[in-house]
């Protein structure tokens, strides 16, 4: 049996329980990774009783929030999802409980975590060994989906690719390449990098990048993907790639959503194709063609977004564009989508 033993720094139990970093680490190991209290205690050089107290302290301080959704509540969400799915014209609509979006930021973060966790579970149930999955990047949503992913099967023949190349010279946790690699690793699946710039300055550069042998086969796999999962962004989320003149020009078209730097207006029309002199050219998946892909090959395009008022016009525009047929969001966002924009 494991007994009390000092930490390497000989820190007392009282000091450990007052350290938020320790409480967060213990909570992550227990709730996210599913480790037992005994294993955590051994790894942290303390007793199981200390770990039990740390988990209780984490709940008391709001580091961990546990909620039980009553059966009548789950029934309400199920019925709401069915009704809204038909009204929004979606193949599937998955809802998590939302909160008043005027509440503090921590509440929105909790809802976004629920959305990401639900998206991870949905993806796990959907994937088979014969699928091709293409994923976007994003540190706020897609990275969270990766964090909550708990594969229930190995899929060695599943192929996973990013929908976009590298946006910056330095990689980051939000890169689509890294997101796709991490999901492939989790499933023991086949992965391909898209090692080309996501954004180039001319049509000629675009054609040259896409023609490179190292990219050509990956782009073909991407085009054949039958499952696509993506987040979205409000317009001009990355202003560094625009001149002020281009921002002013694009603004005249009423931009509402950015997906992989493809920008759509508030009625779902793509703005990139309407500019006489585009500010950039994109080498990855052609997002406007997803509508055709859904209609012709019955692809499943999963949009993961919500928990924030700024995403509502963006989600509405994406759905009007017909570039997603599955939405994973919270019920407050879903209900707001049906209201007439102010």
Automatic annotation (TrEMBL):
InterPro entries according to UniProt: NagB/RpiA_transferase-like, SorC_transcr_regulators, Sugar-bd_dom_put, WH-like_DNA-bd_sf
Family: Belongs to the SorC transcriptional regulatory family.
Domain Sugar-binding, first and last residues per copy: 79-339
Coiled-coil zones: none
Pfam families in the record: Sugar-bind
Keywords: DNA-binding, Transcription, Transcription regulation
Molecular functions per Gene Ontology: carbohydrate binding; DNA binding
Transmembrane domains' residue ranges: none
Transcription among keywords: yes
Record has Transmembrane as a keyword: no
UniProt-recorded name of the protein: Transcriptional regulator, DeoR family
């Amino acid at each position: 049996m494991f007994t009390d033993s000092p930490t390497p720094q000989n820190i007392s139990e009282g000091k450990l329980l007052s350290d938020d970093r320790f409480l967060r680490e213990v909570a992550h190991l227990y709730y996210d990774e599913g480790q037992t209290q005994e294993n955590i205690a051994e790894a942290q050089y303390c007793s199981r009783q200390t770990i039990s107290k740390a988990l209780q302290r984490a709940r008391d301080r709001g580091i961990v929030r546990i909620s039980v959704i009553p059966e009548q509540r789950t029934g309400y969400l199920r019925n709401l999802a069915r009704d809204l799915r038909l009204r929004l014209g979606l193949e599937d609509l998955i809802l998590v409980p939302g909160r008043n979006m005027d509440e503090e930021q921590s509440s929105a973060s909790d809802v976004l975590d629920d959305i990401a966790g639900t998206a991870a579970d949905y993806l796990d149930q959907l994937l088979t060994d014969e699928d091709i999955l293409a994923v976007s990047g994003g540190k706020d949503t897609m990275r969270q989906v990766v964090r909550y992913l708990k594969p229930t099967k190995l899929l060695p023949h599943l192929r996973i690719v990013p929908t976009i190349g590298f946006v910056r010279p330095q990689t980051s946790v939000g890169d689509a390449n890294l997101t796709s690699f991490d999901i492939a690793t989790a499933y023991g699946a086949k992965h391909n990098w898209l090692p080309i710039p996501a954004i180039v300055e001319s049509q000629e550069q675009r054609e040259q990048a896409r023609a490179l042998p190292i990219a050509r086969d990956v782009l073909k796999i991407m085009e054949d993907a039958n499952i696509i999962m993506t987040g979205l962004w409000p317009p001009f989320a990355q202003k560094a790639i625009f001149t002020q003149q281009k921002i002013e020009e694009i603004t005249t078209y009423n931009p509402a959503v950015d997906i992989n730097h493809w920008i759509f207006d508030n009625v779902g029309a793509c703005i990139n194709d309407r500019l006489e002199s585009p500010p950039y050219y994109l080498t990855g998946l052609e997002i406007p063609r997803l509508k055709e892909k859904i209609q012709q090959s019955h692809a499943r395009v999963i949009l993961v977004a919500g928990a924030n008022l700024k995403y509502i016009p963006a989600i509405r525009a994406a759905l009007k564009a017909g570039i997603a047929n599955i939405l994973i969001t919270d019920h407050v966002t879903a209900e707001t989508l049906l209201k007439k924009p102010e």
